[in-house]
Amino acid sequence: MQTLFEAGAKIIRKLNERGFEAFFVGGCVRDFYMARDIQDVDITTDAKPEEVESLFEKTIDVGKVHGTIIVMAEGTPFEVTTYRTDGIYTDHRHPDEVIFSNRLNEDLKRRDFTMNAMAMAEDYTFHDPYEGREAIEKCEITTVGYASDRFGEDALRMVRALRFMSVLDFGIEEETGVAMTANAHLMKHVSVERIVTEFKKMYNGVALDQAKVKLVRTGLARHIPFFSEITDDDLLKSRVDDLLDELIVQVIRDPSLKGSLHHLKLSNKELHTVKGCAALHEALEKGDHPLEVSYSFDEDILERFAAANDQNHLTQQSSLLQKAQALKLSLPISSKKDLEVDGRDLMELYSSRSGPWIKECLNIIEREVLFGRLKNNHNDIIDWVKTHVKVESASI
Ligand code: ATP
Ligand code: MG
Questions:
Q1: 3-state helix/strand/coil string of the chain
Q2: Residue owning the nearest CA to atom 30 of ligand 1
């Protein structure tokens, strides 16, 4: 942590030498004050983006119009952003225009919560005009300025409040909480991707339960895709510490929710995980053979489901699940690709007659091998095919 600040301090000193103001700002200052681990260090300055670019050797333009330039120092990227005030917000999410400023306090004023609106000089002195440290001492999330206005400007801040509640184990100051309830309906203006990003952090936080209670009590959940379809009870009842696990538990409780998963715009991998766990649940409920279950589902799906099941009792078939997990290590093949014959081998056997029979035949071989009735050995399989597959049927 110290080294991140030391590398950042070099950037600040260089800006200072050229007559510019520059400070550490935002989350890193909050986390430094709270003695929490620091992931990234942001810098705020009165230097304009072009001036920042001209001062440093390695820079990346990531959002010059918004004032942000990345400066590389000792191999680490630092976001250096020009002091700015935000113009009017007509879409309840983004300012219509960004106005550069030369006053630190103006830049701090546009920030969401008092604990996030502190700056720190390279000698570790604080600039804390909105009493962020006091809020931290009280473990309280308070907006900078009038909460209702701030949430009206940018509705994402309400979800950020929940995220910080969970991650920092903080409460929400009264007026801020009241304004969340009053402005909950504005969530419709926020892109689901941004909500999901905050939710992932919220779900990984240490105080998720209290954040979920707030999510329900403020009515925010009613205005968030997918979550709006879960009853308050079901949402509060689940025992999870990850967003995907929440989705898994809810989709298993109410399979009709599967159709709404796509609203969350998850990655294909994430969707595969949630849907895979739901399919595994179905296979278990059907009482499929443990070998079948073991073979049909990836190890991470089995593990993920088992962990969620331990906490939420999703199935009565836990012993079937355990058997399937145990069998995973001794499966003769893990997919069709592992078979020692392929379609070409079969075609050669029957003078290159291709057709759907090849797929059907491979499916049967796959099951014979899986259930241990046939060895996964090229010659054994070919012999088996010769005795079991008739030329006439092969030509269908
Ligand atoms: P983390 O530790 O997760 O990075 P953070 O406080 O640094 O937390 P970021 O999303 O990285 O959060 O934002 C950096 C800073 O930018 C915040 O501390 C806050 O000052 C400001 N900020 C971020 N999002 C908003 C917003 N929607 N409205 C106002 N200020 C914001
Ligand atoms: Mg940050």
A1: CHHHHHHHHHHHHHHHHCCCCEEEECHHHHHHHCCCCCCCCEEEECCCHHHHHHHCCCEEEEEHHHCEEEEEECCEEEEEEECEEECCCCCCCCCCCEEECCCHHHHHHCCCEHHHCCEECCCCCEECCCCHHHHHHCCEECECCCHHHHHHHCCHHHHHHHHHHHHHCCEECHHHHHHHHHHHHHHHHCCHHHHHHHHHHHHHCCCHHHHHHHHHHCCHHHHCCCHHHCCHHHHHHCCCCCHHHHHHHHHHHCHHHHHHHHHHCCCHHHHHHHHHHHHHHHHHHHCCCHHHHHHHCCHHHHHHHHHHHHHHCCCCCHHHHHHHHHHHHHCCCCCHHHCCCCHHHHHHHCCCCCCHHHHHHHHHHHHHHHCCCCCCCHHHHHHHHHHHCCHHHHCC
A2: 111
The alpha carbon of 42 and the centre of ligand 2 are apart by a number of angstroms equal to 7
Same domain, 28 and 84: yes
Query: Is ligand 1 within 6 A of the CB of residue 116?
Result: yes
Count of domains forming the chain: 4
Ligand 1, atom 10, lies closest to the CA of 27
Q: Are residues 201 and 262 in the same domain?
A: no
pLDDT tens by residue, 174-200: 999 999 999 999 999 999 999 999 999
Q: Which of 283, 303, 331 is the last residue of a domain?
A: 331
Residue nearest to atom 2 of ligand 1 (CA): 27
Q: Please determine, for residue 255, whether its predicted confidence score (pLDDT) is greater than 70.
A: yes
